[in-house]
Amino acid sequence: MNHFLDIAGAVLGVIGLFAVAVVAKVGLSMVSKEIEGRIDGLAVLLLKLARLRLPAHVRDAIYDLEWMPELQYIIQREQARPITRLWDGLRYSGSLCLKAGSIARAAAPSASLIGRLKIAFRALLSVSGGRRYREIVNDDGLHATEVRIVDPAKINVADLIDAVNKVIDEDKRKS
Question: Membrane-crossing residues (predicted)?
Answer without folding.
Answer: 6-28
